[in-house]
């Protein structure tokens, strides 16, 4: 017997209920996907509703000016409609500037090059600079909120206490004053740094977990360690323009070798090689370096310091200043770039042709009536002749608007929701600059039109799914059926099998009904106009084609007229009554938002979302139930198939035995006959 074929055919019949269960599961999954697609549509619409709850959508303003060469303006939604007249502008706001009166060059025939290191051009400066020796470092540490903030220093590196006032500490971009430990006050936004690099803040400062702490500091020396490859010819230090004093190199933990003599910029390291003090590159003698040899270098560099800042709109009684540690290997361009990009509030520029320096405050206005706004201190300030500068102090803008004489720190300022920009001075003998703030009806119209289009998109999507034809004869394909079809045939079949799975769904049809009611029920809050309480009164109505499921259409002329004639009533109809619990007093947008939220909650209960487990929503529980039935049935099929095999195997064995016995009897009968 062909037992394989017999069992296979029998099992095909046995598996028919299993195929139906798998089809049931597929239908549940398709339904879930359809519900989630509708929920996504609803979420997108609700997000747009959230945007439409802002008054800016109904209070768009436009400003016209009689002379935009003298004054321009823009208006926020908070600006009231009205007119402004600026009769004179006595003075424009200006920023304080410093221009050095003498050149930084000792000889203008060979000017200082801003792109080259300061150290390499010392002989070109008119003034001299005394460099400090030590090591400049910068680290950014992420605080954990529990342990003290501590710099990662080598055991032999120590913070120089005498240089604390030149160091810089910033927490999430905010600067803190670095003071000696004995000067740390309780509530002054101060910080001190111990010899081993641990930071201690004043008691009013709380450093939260994840805070970024940036520290620019000075240590007594720099210790650099590494591992050399066999035959390495050179080793580069991280700093340049090194000092001869305190320089030592040790290999494989041996005694440190100092510089024995210096010729030009090259120092001799007896038994090891030489060091280029300008570049910080050590060159080894042949045969010195073996495989995996350790190297440790103690050295110092030359540096100076500089403090820059200014009084401005955020400074209060003290200027906003920042400290800068300047390495001798840095160029003036690098220094100026650091200052200009910092929060010091100033911009520095070198004219290499004349050797003069310009320093300008970034903010206009006069903030320090008792002196200069710009504050510059430090050794580098002397090198750059900043103490010999012509100072043009900043000034406030002075003008008269609607008969009111007033001042502002900036030429751009805001009054009553209108942002004005003064462009030039003029007096009262000239024609005043007039500005008029009007409602921007076109912008409001566009906002409402876009909202209606979004609503129609939602209605179209839901109506399409809830009215789809259901083809019950087209069940999900089994694996065997798919194997007998082409891809095109499978696609066409699946399209019909998926159709109408949420036809006339009560959640979605109920949502459509509720939203239509939200639109057409009168809005009766205290701000609405009795003549403008329904959408139809402003030109928004349902289309005549009932098949579209209640889509809206706009009478553009009527809506624009309503916006221009009574914009406050339009706003009240759409977003008024936000604090009312009575739906009749709520604006249309708030009603729709509530309906959308309720619908999404019901859809999520029905079909969950991408983060839901199967047990968290009703369709998921049904899927779990079908899965359990499938598992139990598959277990039963295994038992049935095993039973079939056992039965047919036993049958085949019995037949074989019967045949053997028959042949034996036949043979015996044959022998007896002879």
Uncertain runs are none
Give the overall form. Answer: flat
Oligomer: single chain
| Radius of gyration computed on alpha carbons | 42 Å
Given helix and strand content, the structural type is alpha+beta
Kindly state the percentage of residues in helix: 25-40%
Strand content: 25-35%
* Through-space gap between termini: 36 Å
Q: How many H/I helical runs?
A: 11
Most strands sheet: 12 strands, mixed
Q: What is the tally of beta strands?
A: 31
Mean pLDDT: 90
Organism: Jeotgalibacillus haloalkalitolerans
Domain Flagellar hook-associated protein 2 C-terminal: 394-660
Family: Belongs to the FliD family.
Subcellular location: Secreted; Bacterial flagellum
Give a verbal description of the structure.
A hairpin with a 4-residue loop joins β17 and β18. By secondary structure, the chain is α+β, with helices and mostly antiparallel strands. It is built from eleven helices and 31 strands. Strands 5, 6, 7, 8, 9, 10, 11, 13, 14, 19, 20 and 23 form a twelve-stranded mixed β-sheet that branches. Strands 1-29-3-25-26 form a five-stranded antiparallel β-sheet, with no helix packed on it. The chain has a five-stranded antiparallel β-sheet with strand order 12-18-17-16-15, with no helix packed on it.
């Amino acid at each position: 017997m062909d037992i394989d074929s017999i069992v296979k055919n029998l099992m095909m019949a046995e598996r028919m209920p299993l195929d139906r269960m798998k089809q049931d599961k597929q239908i549940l999954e398709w339904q879930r996907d359809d519900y989630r697609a509708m929920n996504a549509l609803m979420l997108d619409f609700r997000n747009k509703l959230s945007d439409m709850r802002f008054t800016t959508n109904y209070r768009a303003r436009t400003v016209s000016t009689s002379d935009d060469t003298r004054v321009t303006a823009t208006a926020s939604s908070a600006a009231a409609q009205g007119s402004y007249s600026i009769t004179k502008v006595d003075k424009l706001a200006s920023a304080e500037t410093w221009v050095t009166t003498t050149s930084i060059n000792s000889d203008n025939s060979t000017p200082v090059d801003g792109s080259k290191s300061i150290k390499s051009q010392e002989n070109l400066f008119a003034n001299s600079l005394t460099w400090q020796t030590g090591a400049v470092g910068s680290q950014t540490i992420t605080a954990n909120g529990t342990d003290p903030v501590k710099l990662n220093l080598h055991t032999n590196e120590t913070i120089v206490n005498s240089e604390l006032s030149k160091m810089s500490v910033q927490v999430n971009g905010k600067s803190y004053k670095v003071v000696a430990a004995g000067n740390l006050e309780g509530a002054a936004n101060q910080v001190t740094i111990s010899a081993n690099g641990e930071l201690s803040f004043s008691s009013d400062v709380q450093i939260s977990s994840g805070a970024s702490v940036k520290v620019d500091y000075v240590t007594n020396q720099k210790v650099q360690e590494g591992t050399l490859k066999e035959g390495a010819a050179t080793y580069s230090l991280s700093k340049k323009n090194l000092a001869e004093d305190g320089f030592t190199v040790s290999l494989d933990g041996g005694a440190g070798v100092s510089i024995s003599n210096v010729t030009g910029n090259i120092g001799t390291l007896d038994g090891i090689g030489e060091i280029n003090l300008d570049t910080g590159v050590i060159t080894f003698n042949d045969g010195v370096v073996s495989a995996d040899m350790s190297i440790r270098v103690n050295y110092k560099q030359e540096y100076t310091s500089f403090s820059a800042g200014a009084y401005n709109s955020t400074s209060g009684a003290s200027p906003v200043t920042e400290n800068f540690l300047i390495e001798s290997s840095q160029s003036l361009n690098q220094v100026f770039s650091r200052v200009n990009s910092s929060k010091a509030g100033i911009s520095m520029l070198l004219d290499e042709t004349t050797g003069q320096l310009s320093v300008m405050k970034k903010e206009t206005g006069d903030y320090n009536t008792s002196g200069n706004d710009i504050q510059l201190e430090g050794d580098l300030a002397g090198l750059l002749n900043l103490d010999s500068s012509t100072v043009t102090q900043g000034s406030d803008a002075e003008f008269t608007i609607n008969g009111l004489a007033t001042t502002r720190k900036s030429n751009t300022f805001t009054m009553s929701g209108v942002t004005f920009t003064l462009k030039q001075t003029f007096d009262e003998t000239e024609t005043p600059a007039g500005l008029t703030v009007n409602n921007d009806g076109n912008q409001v119209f566009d906002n409402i039109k876009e909202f209606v289009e979004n609503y129609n998109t939602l209605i179209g999507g839901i109506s399409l799914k809830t009215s789809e034809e259901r083809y019950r004869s087209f069940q999900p394909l089994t694996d065997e059926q798919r194997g007998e079809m082409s891809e095109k045939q499978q696609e066409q079949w699946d399209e019909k099998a998926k159709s109408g799975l949420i036809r006339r769904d009560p959640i979605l049809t109920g949502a459509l009904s509720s939203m239509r009611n939200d639109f057409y029920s009168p809005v009766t809050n205290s701000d609405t106009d009795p003549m403008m309480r329904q959408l139809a009164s402003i030109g928004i109505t349902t289309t005549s084609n009932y098949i579209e499921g209640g889509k809206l259409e706009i009478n553009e002329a009527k809506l624009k007229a309503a916006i221009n004639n009574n914009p406050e009533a339009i706003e009240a109809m759409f977003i008024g009554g936000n604090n009312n619990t009575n739906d009749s007093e709520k604006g249309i947008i708030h009603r729709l938002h509530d309906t959308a939220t309720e619908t999404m909650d019901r859809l999520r209960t029905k079909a969950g979302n991408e983060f839901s487990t199967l047990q968290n929503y009703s369709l998921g529980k049904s899927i779990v139930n079908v899965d359990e039935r499938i598992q139990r049935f598959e277990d039963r099929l295994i038992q049935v198939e095993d039973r079939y095999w056992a039965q047919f195997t036993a049958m085949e064995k019995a037949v074989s035995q019967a045949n053997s016995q028959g042949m034996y009897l036949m043979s015996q009968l044959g022998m007896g006959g002879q």
